[in-house]
Amino acid sequence: ATPTAIMVGTGRGAANGILIKSAEALEIAHGVDTVVLDKTGTITRGEPRVTDVVHRADVAVDDLLRVAAALERPSEHPLAKAIVAEGERRGLTVPNADGFEQVPGQGVRGIVDGKECLGGNAAMMAASGIDMAPVEHVRDRLAGEGKTPLFFAADGRLLGVIAVADTVKPTSREAIAGMRAMGLDVVMLTGDNARTAEAIGRQVGVDRVVADVLPQDKEREVRRLQDEGRKVAMVGDGINDAPALVRADVGLAIGAGTDVAMESADIVLMRSDLNDVPAAIELSQATIRNIK
Ligand code: ADP
Ligand code: MG
Asked: What exactly does this protein do (predicted)?
């Protein structure tokens, strides 16, 4: 494209809250055929809340929440913040966790009231040999409702399940329909479990869901799509998404997301609205058409 066309395109983007950081990004975006969307914070608001607390019959509900809040208090994860907020809402006195440790994409562990405690997803429990059989039906029901079930255990025994759910942003569904109408293949990529991810994926109408992806593997998923000959746009908000944003042909960051994501992206969506993804691609197409 000519320097003038690029300037016009960049200016039109900026006027609409679409910050395009390089001429290349504006030129490449027109050829994109696949859009990869992160779930938490990108398709959803990223402000999860506790929706269900299911405790073992011999465990008091407040004891489950006290352990969970103690374990999650040092964590910066949005799921952790939801659990700490629930503990506060219930006015619980939460002890400190000693030897706190975080396993990226899986959960947290630490010593609470002298007991070895852990919390997180099924993989986190499996790694410590926790028996999940008694809560399998609870897990399936919660996940089928699009909620994220988190498990908590003390001294090798499960205490219960706390479900956390996030709400889909109001424009995500129409934005994804817009992308599909442009002939784009839309993929949701998430570290969340498959059942929860599928439920959200159905709500917003993506073509495909790739779930249970560890933070360090998101970039590899983008590369895999590129190896199929696709031109990939990646949209994300988290530190987790940064390597995938760099790897993608075009990386788009949610303006309300982390600084790391914005620094790693080619385009920043200041309004944090997924409608600006098809808008950015259309802008690129218009820019390219103008110079032909
Ligand atoms: P996403 O890709 O959706 O942003 P993450 O990669 O951050 O998700 O996390 C993936 C999964 O790991 C979560 O859905 C949750 O089950 C588990 N997990 C991660 N961090 C925590 C935590 N602090 N407490 C409990 N579970 C966690
Ligand atoms: Mg995210």
From this structure: Involved in copper transport.
